[in-house]
Amino acid sequence: MKNLREIPHVKIHLIALVWVSSTCIFPALNEELLTWKSFLFGAAFYLYILAITVPFDIRDLNYDDPTSKTVPQVFGVNIAKKIALITLLASGCIFTFLSDGILQQVVLMIALIYQAILIQLTTKNKPELFYSGLIDGGIIILAISFCKCV
Fold first, then answer.
1. Closest CA to 12 of 78, 64, 89
2. pTM summary value
3. Contact partners, residue 10, CB within 8 Å, separation at least 6
4. Domain region containing 61
């Protein structure tokens, strides 16, 4: 029997869904703040996580089962990067619409540009620190952009 992440085309969406559920949906439900704005924020964050998961799929090209049908397996590395960048851009458009002020937008743009650069620099041969340190760590910049202190 296959686990869910082994079903073709599903792994990247499961990752994004877990992130969005644990950081957006469940907290909003707990605080009874499930609004149209929180829905849009969840959608933007879902797209953001989809985009930054593509480099991990590129890293895993040599290890993933070919039947997994990850984005780089289906489209190749270069097109997968373009898909990730378009997804990141869509996420940025929604986040910008939701942002409260110019300082928040500046920090948001820094977060998105940072991830866009890392997506472009992604290869199968990068060290683990590139993925677990730089790409995952970039989520912190995005979180800072939505702090009430910005």
1. 64
2. 0.90
3. 4
4. 4-145
Amino acid at 109: M
Has residue 150 been placed in a domain? no
147 secondary structure, DSSP code? S
Can you list the alpha helix ranges (DSSP code H) found in the chain? 11-20, 26-30, 36-59, 71-75, 77-98, 102-121, 128, 136-145
How many domains is the chain partitioned into structurally? 1
Provide the token pair at 129: 């620190």
Nearest Cα neighbor of 50 from 8, 89, 6 is 89
pLDDT digits (tens, 9 = 90+) for 124-140: 889 999 998 999 999 99
Determine whether 58 is exposed, middle or buried from the number of CB atoms within 10 Å of its CB (0-12, 13-18, 19+): buried
